[in-house]
Amino acid sequence: MKNILGREIPETIQGYGTVKPFQGAFASLGEVEKKSVKLKSTGPKEEKVLSSIQEVLEKCSLQDGMTVSFHHHLRNGDYVLNMVLDEIAKAGVRDIKVAASSIFPIHAPLVQHIQNGVVTGIYANYMSGPVAEAISRGELKNPAIMHTHGGRARAIESGDLSIDIAFIAAPTCDTYGNINGVEGKAACGTLGYAVPDAVYATKTVAITDNLVPYPACPIEITQEHIDYVVKVDSIGDPKGIVSGTTQITKDPVGLKIAKMTAKVIEVSGLLKDGFSFQTGAGGTSLAVAAYVKELMKKNNVKGSFAAGGITGYMVEMFEEGLFESLFDVQCFDLKAVESYRDNKRHQVMSASMYGNPHNKGAVVNNLDVMILGATEIDTAFNANVTTGSSGMIMGGSGGHSDTAAGSKLAIVVTQLVKGRLPIVVDRVTTVTTPGETIDVLVTERGIAVNPLRQDLIEKLKTTNLPIMTIEELKAMAEAMTGIPEKIELDDEVVAVVEYRDGTVIDVVRKIKD
C-alpha cells in the first residue's frame, strides 16, 4: 500500500506487525489514552542498593523476549548499554529488545549480541556507526523501529513501547534512587530522555558511579520511580558527550548560508520580543545563531526561550540576556552542563514535554524558528536525515520531525551539493520529516520556499535574496553533478520509520553489498 506521501509500505511487516500508514502531520490529534503502570511498592525496611548488575537481573526476573531501555545523555561516552547487555548475554538470556533513545559508535559491541541472537529488536530515535551499518545489512532479526524524540515518549506513555526494565545511567544517585545529572565524574546535565522510561517501565534501575548518602541534591528523577540502585566503577566518559562541531563554521559557504537564513528569519516578522528559537550543534546552524544574535542586539529584541539540545553558544546568548529561559532536553557540551547546574532559568524538559504530540502541549508548539539539516530534500520538501546516499542508516529523526511540526518557521540549511551529489532530488531515499512541515530550504546558491507558505513568499519578494523554486535548485544542482544513479536496494525491510504519532512514514530497505 501507499501512505499519503506515496511511499510504498507493506500492509504488515514481519517482526513489526500491522502498519498504520502516515496520513498527515496533524491527522492523529485528538483524545488519546495513556497506559496504566503496575508498581511493586517498597517497604520501610527494604534496601534498594544491590551489589551487581547480575543481581539486578535476577531481582527483576529478566526473561527471554523482554524489552530493556537506555538513555543517551552520555552519547558517545556511554558505558552502561554495553555493560548491561554483556551481563544479559552471560546470563544466557536471548531475544531481547533494546529500546535505546539513541545509539552511537561506542555501542559497537551490540553488533555481536545481534549476531548471536541475544538482541533481536531495536527501538531508537537515532543511530550511527557499526550498529546502524549491521541493521542496514539485514543482520537484526526484526526490523528496527525508528522514532522521533517526542514519538518515543508518546510510544512509551501509550503502551506502544512497553519497557520491562529501564536502566538509567545516573551521574549521581543516592541510596534510595534519587538521581541528578549535574554532579559526579560523568556529569552530563539534564536527563530529559530518561524520564518516560523511569516513569513507565515495569522495573527501573539506576546505575551510578557516584553513590551518595540520602538525600541527593538536586533531584531530577525521583526515588518513587526507582526499584534498584547499582554502583559501578564508571558509567561513561563525559568527553564523549560533546556533539557535532559545537563551533561556528569558518567555511565561507556555510557562513553565506547562515547569513541568508538570518535574513529570512528577520523578514518573516518573527524576530521580535518574545522570539523563541532552536538550532542544532553543527557549524552552519551555530553560525545562524550568531547572525540571529547580531540582529537581536541590533533591534533590541528580547527573546522568550531557546530550546532543544543546548550548546555552549546558546548558553552565551542566554547569559547575555537575549533569552529569558532555556528549555533543555539534553546538554550538548560541558558548558551547557555547568549552566544547567548553576542557573535556575536553565530548565529541564522531559522528552514528552519537548515533543510528544499526544499530550496537552509540547514545547515545540511554542517555537517560532527551528533550524534543521538534511541529507536529502525532495521537490515536495520531504526531508531525509535517516539514510545516506547509499541507503545506509546514518542518523534518524531525533527532534527533526517534532520541531518541524511545532515551529512557525522550519528552515533546512544545507549546501546544494555534498560529496558530488545533489541534495535536492525528485524523491528522497527515506522520508524522515514530511514536506508539509518544512517551510524553507536555504542553500548557498539560492532559497526555496514551500508553496504552502505564500505569505512568506510575498514577504521575501521585497528583499534581494535569491528566491527560486525548489525545482530550479534541483536543476542547478544536477547541472553541477549530473543526475545521480538510482540506488538499488533489496526488498527486505530492515527498519520502520515511524512519524511522531506512531504511523509509518517510510521504511528502510536492506542495502545491496
From TrEMBL:
GO terms for molecular function: citrate (pro-3S)-lyase activity; citrate CoA-transferase activity. Keywords: Cytoplasm, Lyase, Transferase. GO terms for cellular component: ATP-independent citrate lyase complex; cytoplasm. GO terms for biological process: acetyl-CoA metabolic process. Its EC number is 2.8.3.10, 4.1.3.6. Its main location: cytoplasm. InterPro entries: Citrate_lyase_asu (IPR006472), NagB/RpiA_transferase-like (IPR037171). Pfam families: CitF (PF04223). It catalyses: citrate = oxaloacetate + acetate; citrate + acetyl-CoA = (3S)-citryl-CoA + acetate. It is found in: Cytoplasm. NCBIfam families: citF. This is Citrate lyase alpha chain. It comes from Natronincola ferrireducens.
